[in-house]
């Protein structure tokens, strides 16, 4: 058996780096848990609004922006409302990065199933078809649409 003695200062340094790494990872896990512990291919639509506002029937469009690791992206959201409930949705994007094109496409393909038939006050999308960042732009656009449609 061959033994190599590691200096005490190297062992202490490695321990400090390990503990610091754990603290950094622990801080990151809180954001991941807050983003949603739902299945990666599902969307959470939950009611966080306590008020039930009155909204004029009609079709409304707004843009929403969100930050990706590469750029700031924008999507355009068009919602049709009847009695405060979403009856139609259309989302278009103009992706600036190749990876964003993929995620926006997946979001656009899955969003209708998640929001049509849901009251606008209950919309709070977190993740659609594995796309979690695009939902930030969607939710920002919905907030703008609520203001436009307020009766």
What's this entry about, in short?
With 151 residues, the protein is an alpha+beta fold. Helices cover 41% and strands 20% of the residues. A 3-stranded antiparallel beta sheet has the order 1-2-3.
Low confidence ranges:
26-52
- Radius of gyration, in angstroms, nearest whole number: 22 Å
Provide the spatial order of strands within the biggest beta sheet. Answer: 1-2-3
Termini separation: 82 Å
How many helical elements? 3
Q: Give me the secondary-structure category.
A: alpha+beta
* Helix content estimate: 40-55%
**Morphology:** elongated
Largest sheet: 3 strands, antiparallel
Order of helices and strands: HEEEHH
Number of strands: 3
Average pLDDT across residues? 76
The share of residues in extended strands comes to: 15-25%
Question: Which features does this protein show?
Answer:
151 residues, alpha+beta, three-stranded antiparallel sheet, 3 helices, 41% helix, elongated
Describe the structure.
- The chain has 151 residues and is of the alpha+beta class.
- Helices cover 41% and strands 20% of the residues.
- The chain contains 3 helices and 3 strands.
- It has a 3-stranded antiparallel sheet.
- The chain is elongated, with a radius of gyration of 22 Å.
């Amino acid at each position: 058996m061959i033994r190599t003695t590691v200096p005490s200062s190297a062992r202490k340094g490695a321990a400090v780096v390990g503990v610091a790494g754990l603290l950094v990872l622990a801080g990151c896990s809180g954001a991941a848990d807050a983003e949603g512990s739902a299945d990666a291919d599902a969307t959470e639509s939950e009611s966080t609004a306590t008020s039930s506002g009155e909204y004029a029937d009609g079709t409304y469009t707004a843009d929403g922006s969100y930050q990706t690791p590469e750029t700031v992206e924008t999507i355009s959201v068009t919602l049709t409302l009847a009695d405060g409930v979403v009856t139609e949705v259309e989302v278009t994007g103009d992706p600036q990065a190749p990876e964003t094109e993929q995620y926006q496409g997946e979001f656009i393909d899955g969003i209708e199933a998640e929001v049509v038939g849901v009251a606008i006050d209950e919309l709070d999308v977190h993740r659609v078809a594995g796309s979690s960042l695009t939902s930030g732009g969607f939710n920002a656009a919905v907030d703008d649409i609520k203001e436009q449609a307020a009766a």
